[in-house]
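HOLO CASE FILE
Compound: iron/sulfur cluster
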Amino acid sequence: MDIRSQIAMVFHLDKCIGCHTCSIACKNIWTDRKGAEYMWWNNVETKPGTGYPSKWEDQGIYKGGWEKNKDGNINLKGAGKRRGLTNIFYNPNLPVIDDYYEPFTYKYLDLIESPEKDDQPTARPVSLITGKPIDIKMGPNWDDDLSGTPDYARNDPNFKNISPEEKEVMFQLEKMAFFYLPRICNHCLNPACVASCPSGAIYKRGEDGVVLINQEVCRAWRMCVTACPYKKSYYNWHTGKSEKCILCYPRMEAGLAPACMHSCVGRIRYLGVLLYDASKIEETAKADEKDLIQKQLDIILNPFDENVIREAKKNGVADSTIHAAQNSPIYRFVKEWKLALPLHPEFRTLPMLFYVPPLLPVMATVKKTDNAEQQDKMHPIAKKWEDNWLYDTSTKELWGTLDQIRFPLKYIANLFSAGDEELIKEKWKKLMAVRIHRRKVTVGDISDEKVTETLRDANMTAEEADAIYALTSLPKFEERFVIPAAHREQAIEMMDFTGDTKGGTGFGIKKPVVRGI
Amino acid sequence: MNYLDNFILIVLPYVALATFLIGSIYRYTSRKFQVSSLSSQFLEGKKLFMGSVPFHWGIVFIFLGHLIAFTIPKGVLAWNSQPVRLMVLEITAFIFGISMLVGLINLFIRRYTTPRLKYVTNKMDFAIYILLILQTFAGLWIAYNFRWGSSWFSTLLTPYLYSIFKFQPDITAVALLPWTVKLHIMGAYLIIGILPFSRLIHMLVLPLNYIWRPYQQVMWNWDKDKVRSSKSPWSVHRPKNT
Ligand code: SF4
Ligand code: SF4
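Model generated. Tokens follow.
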């Protein structure tokens, strides 16, 4: 056993309202710079949709992630030692800026400085690369909320294995449903970006598992951009260096939550420590596709187990970190309650960001109603209901519709469970059971038998349902983010005599201050 | 003529080598962020193929050819002792030279006709394009007109280069070579001299280490075993992170 700690995350998709506050928080802090304008280390996609960069999930185009070959080993699909070094002069699988979008701004000054004329002045869009006026073809979240559906949502790569009829049903206007998928770097256990970097500029931090690119060592060989199947490593065209999400490590070392999580309006984000067995990473990443998720869960260890604690301590995991692991909301969502799943586990990078699959847009079906009675009661000048469709959120229907859901189960399974529909069903049953149980507690219009039956069906106790409810709906800041101390003091002790450091002037001088000669 | 020969063949190499060494070390240690191949594939990913690929593979083999003639001249002469082998060597080298020139011209056209690339191109880029195009052209010209280059490089130029490295420059033989050859030699020194101050620096950081390093890399901020325990006194020996 080689126990390490990893900062992991859970995003609860039922709670995301698609406000993009997270993206803006990140952009304002980290990527509001020349060459990084087009980068969204955090982005929120509408699903179904092609995402950002366009169709990133289609590894037939981008060749990201690992693939298992015949002898049972895994190789990087579009990079690696042989491919990476022979393609170093021209990377055939590199996305170009137009796959994201050309960054732009508007000439606002024209609005103020324009002389008096017959027409209103306009602020023309100009490219942030060339500074010349451009015709904007694509921008961040161009496909938000299913806009431009024929171009975007219908081309979603997750429609593989879904029959054209099923697909058509999804796009009938009155049945249309969607959900949001916020994405950041997954800080994977088997990161493809690290493995693909010829200069060795990318590394995983041992203490907390954050994956970083050393800007001084990156030489623009740009293999990581290809290799990351989530397209979360970006090439800065201005500096000639690749950049990626740093999980706000300067904030985390100070005990603060990453900016995207701190600012999340829907409070969908959880962050905490997981203890895992690093000696099993390779074996896990090589597992058969059907076992991948189970193996990934198995690698995560129980932080209450005596044996695990002893081994962790032996490996230098600090007591405070073990304590944080015991209070980790991630451990509860992922291991205890088995509610969260990794995004596209079939890419085999063992992502450490887990998602609670969305239930609401999937379950809420529409039914035909007669509004006549309601309409008559309304004031004559009030707007009349034009359609007769209503969302049906009655509990009976909800429960009865697991098989008639608006999203084909296969679609969600293609996203979160490498196609395993049973696994998704299992999560949905749990999420439903929590709702039904709480409805009984708060409204009381459901019979005890029904509640017992649903809980049993979901393999859950009432206490567990209450705990899930509490952490989902009522969590305080400290319950959502359990950040272990970074123990920088020990790092300093090892690198320097604290006596020397104390004598230094600080403020950026890292070397001991020595008098000149 | 003599002054010019002395300048090109004696002064220039030392100046170039000095700037190369000092410049590269300075840039690698103090301006590390600026060491990058500055790839522009992200802004233009189609035309690059017909430029970058022939150019780079061409220059890799041409460079290795020059290096081999410099390090093992006897081997080259022995190989060339049979006309067939000499022909094979010369023709292959010539093809790589052509590939390099074609690549360079494509790169040059691409860079100056693609609007976006204007904003990631500086004056030094222009200088090295011109220098490399002239140098490649001169090399091909020499290979075509003064045969057989691989042989006379090994007998004439290698001793001269050795004399430079031994700090006893001997240019008697080289001074008699045609002016095109001298121009080619001068071009080489110029390229070496400006290498640390241009994007060419990326050839010094070729990621060969990738071949034998393990795929995954984990770095530790601190190593529990090496952190001083509160019970032990300060050691005189400063611990180092691995
Ligand atoms: S999501 Fe991509 S960039 Fe992030 S660690 Fe995984 S492979 Fe690397
Ligand atoms: S801030 Fe939170 S709720 Fe808003 S889009 Fe981002 S993840 Fe969703």
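CASE NOTES: Residues 360-477 of chain A form a domain with the nitrate reductase domain fold fold (CATH 1.10.3650.10). The pocket of iron/sulfur cluster (ligand 2) is lined by residues A 16-22, 44, 180, 182, 264-266, 268 (CB under 6 Å).
CLOSED: yes
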